[in-house]
Predict the 3D structure of the following.
Amino acid sequence: MTAQSIALNRFGLGARPDEAALADPKAWLDGQLRSFEPRPAAIAAAPSRQEVAQQLADYFEEVRAMGGPAARRAQAAASDARPRTQPAAMTTMSPMPGQEAAPTPGQMAGQMGGEKALNDRIAGLPPSAQQFIRKASRDYYLTSVAARTDAALATPAPFVERLVHFWANHFAVSADKLVVIGLAGLLEFEAIRPHVLGRFEDMLLAVEQHPAMLLYLDQAQSVGPDSRLGTLAATRGRKVGLNENLAREIMELHTLGVRSGYSQADVTEFARALTGWTVDGLGRGPAARLTSGGGAPGTFHFAEAIHQPGARNIVGKSYDQPGIEQAKAVLHDLAASPATARHIATKLARHFAADDPPPALVDRLTAAYLKSGGDLPTVYRALIGAPEIWSPATAKFRTPWDWSVAALRAVGTKQLQGQAVAGLMTQLGQPVWRPGSPAGYDDIAASWAGPDALVRRVEAAERIASRAAGAIDARALAPKLFPDSLSPATAQALARAESPGQGLALLLASPEFLRR
C-alpha cells in the first residue's frame, strides 16, 4: 500500500469516487483534527434524548401499573443482554427505585428482517411491551443507525469518524437490552462525538453519566446499604443493595485494563462511591420520588438518598469527598493513571497498526497520553507520525462495519435507510450497538476472517454491485480507492470480468478491499 492508500483506508473509512487525490496524506489527516464536525445534519436530526427517555418513562409506568401476571410476563422477557462475568443475581435488569423490573428481550427485533421477524420475537409479550419495542426499534434505534451511517458515508473527516467508532466500541453498550434500544446511539452522539477531540477524562465522565451506560450496567438502581433509602428499605424488610457492574467495567474495560493491580475490594469500594449516580425522570413510585431531582426524563442526576456515606480507599488512595465529588475524583485519578494510558495506547495500536500491537508504538502512544494529560489530539498526532502504521503491508483485516462503510463509500452512497444498514450488519455478524458484552466487538482478524464470514461478504458485495446497475466501471474505480496499490492479480481479475457488475463485486471482495 502507498501512503495515499494507507491514509484513505487504514486511517480513514475508504475513498469516495468523487474525492480529489491526496497531495500530502499526513497533512490531510492532521487537518481533520481541526475540521471535524461533531454534530452534522444526519446526527442533529436523530431523536432527542428527552423524546426517547419520555417514552421509556411511560413504559416503566405501564409495567408498574400492570401488577400480577401481566407484569411478571413482561419481566420474563429479560434474559440475554447480561453484563459479563457477573454473579447470577446481577445479570437481569434490576428495577429503578420504586419500579417493577423492566424486560430486556433476548434478541431485539426490527433490524432483523422486517415485520414478521419483529412480530415473532415479541409474540406473547403484553401489548404495552410490544408497542414500546416496535416504537423504540423503528423510531429510535433504526433512525440512529441511519444517522451514524450517513455521517460515516458523507464525512469529509473520515479519520476522526473512525475514531468515533473506535471509542463507541471501547465504551460499548448493547441495544439488545430493552431500556437501551433508543439510547445506544445517543451515547455515541452525545458523549463521544463532542469529546473525540478533547481530553479522555472529559469523555470518560460524559460516558459514565450517560443514561445508556447507567441503565445498561444497572448503575441507575444501585443503592448504598447505609444510605437513607437503603436504611428505610431495611426497616421495611425490602432488599436493596449495591450493584458493581459499572465500577467493574470502568476499571477493567474503560480505564486501567485487566491485570493492572486493582482488586475486587477496589471494585466494591468504587461501586460504593458511585452510588447515587442515576437517571432522572424515569420512575414515578414513592421511592423514585425520594431519589428524583425533578429533571427531564433521561438527564443525569446524583441522588444523595441512595449514596453510601463514608470515605473510600481505592487503588491505594483515600477518597473522602462528599456526594457526587467522590466518584468524580476516582474517575479523575483513573483517567490519569499510567495503566489507563497503556491500556488505551495498546487498543489504539491494535486498531491502527496490527492485531499484535508493536511494543515501541504502544510505548510512544502511552508517553504522548501521559505527557499531554490525556489530550486525545496529541495521541492521534502520535498515531499519524507512527512509522509502524505506514508500513506497506496490509496488517489489519476489516471488520464488517469497516468493510460495509468502505464498500458503500466506494460506490458513492451518501444516504441509506436504517433498516437496510441494520439488516446488512446483522448478516455480516456485527449488528450496530449490539455487541455480546460490555467489552465491545473484537478488533482482530481471527474474529472476522472465517470461511462463512467471507462467503457472507461476497454475497453482500454482489448485492451492492447489483444495485449499481452496471453504472460503475471497477477498472476505473480501483485506482481511486487504492492509489498505486492494486495487485496485478486483482487488476487482471477486474479486466477479465464478464460485466461491470461482476467487476465491481470482484473489487469489493478483493484482498485489497478486505484488508486495510
Q: What stands out?
A: The longest helix spans residues 127-154. The chain has 26 helices and four strands. The radius of gyration is 24 Å.
